[in-house]
User: Which sequence fits this backbone?
């Protein structure tokens, strides 16, 4: 199913021409209306009219999250405040938050791309979308909401939290599409079971899950528990919110809505562009955003571009699921480790619930990693040697995956913090004053 | 002759054992025998209780990981060598013991030994053949 077949299946040549035309407009707008961009362009001696081909985008300096914080709150706006109709904001957990402003037209674009996402998951106007992304300054809730309304589906603006009520609503309303973070979906399955509601018996048929990293194994787990299609959604506050890219039913990567977003992959160290298929840092440029155009925004997300023809018929390029972050990776004894690697290893050792936490400490001079894994009812044996074997198996598998010895501690079920938003997988207790 | 034992996974965390036992006490579950296998990481609490099914339900409601396992309870003479004699039969038949714990019955005449082996059915037939007294569930409840 496609929301906008004409655009989503656009011929390559036509798409590139459209992108170039829109890029030129965006660059012009950014240069003329945002002093920050003008300064950056002037520093490298670049003029908007120098952008003659799509390839010329490489001459535009990157925009980083730090840049955005510097101009907090409204310094990146390319529209007057009277034209801005909505504001969203990143959490600001690592510093000053980033404010995103939307014009009426930006909201329309957001609804359009989100409508495409939800349609990829099979949503039609007959569907009931239970939206458990947070409503508020976070972009998730409203993004999904606008898209679902555009389709004409019935939206249940459940927001995050109050999990038992979420389950009751799902059961009583017969919600068919679920949107939330993947870890929250798994948590909901647990709570449902506790309430005596078998998740499989709910009417759900698909879910759009994102806002945090997750693995293929986690997808399988969600699909099994709810008997649904679990699809990946990608987006970020700085670009628009959810709806930058979404997985089609082929589940082989996320289609980027290239008519609105230009996608590049760079080497995070050198900033050089990497060829399609090569993994690196995702860089995005908005092509139609009025309120806050983003030129070459460094997302810090690690992925690669897949440009093979997709069986679904869409011509938009895909990105593979996010493989990690260039900044939230854990550097332990000089080795870069991403939580998803540890997660995958745990999930490979059968029967363990995907609830874990990575604790990094530096007891003396060496970093130590402890992985807390919740014991599951299925794997509990009353014999010490069986539990010890399980622990050793986990330690071995994780070591094989990341190349570093870790200590696995089995903890009681539900003893690790559950989150209704992004799961906090890493607790770094190192005080790095060397 | 199999007896239901209840096993609980305990993280080495302050108060966990107390919380488990308190939950049982509140629901009037009596513990006949108890043992804890502990490692530096975790403990396994094993108990023979008056109502294992109910105990399981209570503990699970309190978010403990619980399992019911079949074990054997045998009565041995409360005197030196009483247990060794019974175990010799298993040794002779090459049966490995997974775990074992004992308690003394109120009259003090006999010791009751709870054990789990790699092959319970075989263990039962060997012990019965050799004249070792195995307790039924009713016997255990009557202790």
Assistant:
């Amino acid at each position: 199913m496609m929301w906008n077949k004409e655009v989503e299946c656009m011929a390559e040549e036509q798409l590139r021409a459209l992108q170039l035309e829109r890029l030129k407009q965006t660059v012009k707008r950014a240069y003329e209306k945002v002093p920050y961009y003008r300064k950056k362009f002037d520093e490298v001696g670049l003029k908007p009219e120098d952008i003659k081909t799509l390839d010329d985008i490489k001459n535009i300096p990157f925009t980083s999250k730090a840049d955005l914080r510097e101009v907090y709150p409204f310094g990146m706006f390319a529209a007057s405040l009277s034209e801005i109709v909505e504001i969203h904001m990143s959490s600001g957990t690592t510093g000053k938050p980033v404010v995103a402003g939307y014009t009426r037209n930006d909201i329309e674009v957001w609804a359009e791309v989100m409508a495409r996402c939800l349609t990829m998951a099979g949503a039609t106007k007959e569907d009931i979308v239970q939206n458990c992304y947070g409503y508020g300054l976070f972009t998730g809730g409203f993004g999904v909401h606008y898209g679902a309304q555009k389709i004409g589906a019935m939206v249940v603006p459940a927001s995050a939290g109050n999990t038992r009520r979420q389950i009751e609503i799902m059961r009583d309303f017969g919600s068919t599409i679920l949107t939330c973070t993947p870890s929250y979906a798994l948590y909901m399955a647990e709570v449902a079971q506790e309430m005596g509601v078998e998740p499989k018996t709910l009417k759900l048929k698909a879910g759009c899950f994102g806002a945090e990293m997750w693995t293929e194994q986690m997808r399988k787990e969600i699909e099994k528990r709810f008997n649904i299609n679990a699809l990946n959604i990608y987006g970020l506050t700085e670009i628009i919110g959810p709806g930058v890219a979404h997985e089609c039913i082929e589940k082989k990567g996320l289609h980027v809505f290239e008519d609105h977003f230009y996608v590049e992959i760079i080497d995070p160290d050198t900033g050089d562009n990497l060829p399609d298929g090569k993994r690196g840092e995702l860089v995005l440029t908005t092509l139609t955003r009025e309120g806050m155009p983003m030129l070459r925004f460094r997302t810090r997300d690690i992925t690669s571009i897949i440009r093979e023809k997709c069986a679904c018929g869409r011509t938009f390029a895909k990105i593979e699921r996010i493989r990690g972050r260039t900044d939230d990776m854990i550097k332990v004894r000089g080795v870069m480790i991403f939580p998803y690697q540890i997660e995958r290893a745990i999930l490979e050792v059968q029967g363990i619930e995907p609830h874990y936490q990575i604790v990094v400490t530096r007891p003396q001079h060496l970093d130590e990693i402890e992985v807390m894994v919740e014991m599951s009812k299925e794997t509990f044996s009353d014999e010490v040697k069986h539990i010890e074997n399980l622990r050793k198996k986990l330690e071995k598998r994780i070591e094989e995956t990341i190349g570093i010895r870790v200590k696995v501690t089995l903890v009681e079920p539900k003893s690790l913090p559950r989150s209704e938003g992004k799961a906090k997988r890493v607790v770094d207790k190192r005080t790095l004053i060397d | 002759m199999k007896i239901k034992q209840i096993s609980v996974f305990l993280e080495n965390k302050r108060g966990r054992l107390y919380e488990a036992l308190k939950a049982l006490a509140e629901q009037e579950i009596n513990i006949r025998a108890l043992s804890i296998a502990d490692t530096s990481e975790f403990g396994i609490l094993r108990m023979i209780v008056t109502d294992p099914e109910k105990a399981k339900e209570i503990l699970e409601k309190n978010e403990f990981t619980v399992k019911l396992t079949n074990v054997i309870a045998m009565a041995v003479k409360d005197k030196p060598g009483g247990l060794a004699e019974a175990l010799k039969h298993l040794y002779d038949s090459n049966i490995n013991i997974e775990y074992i714990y004992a308690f003394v019955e109120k009259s003090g005449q006999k010791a009751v030994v709870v054990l789990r082996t790699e092959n319970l059915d075989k263990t039962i037939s060997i012990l019965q053949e050799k004249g070792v007294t195995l307790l039924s569930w009713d016997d255990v409840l009557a202790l």
Remarks:
- The first helix of chain A runs from residue 5 to 8.
- The mean pLDDT of chain A is 91.
- The longest strand of chain A covers residues 229-236.
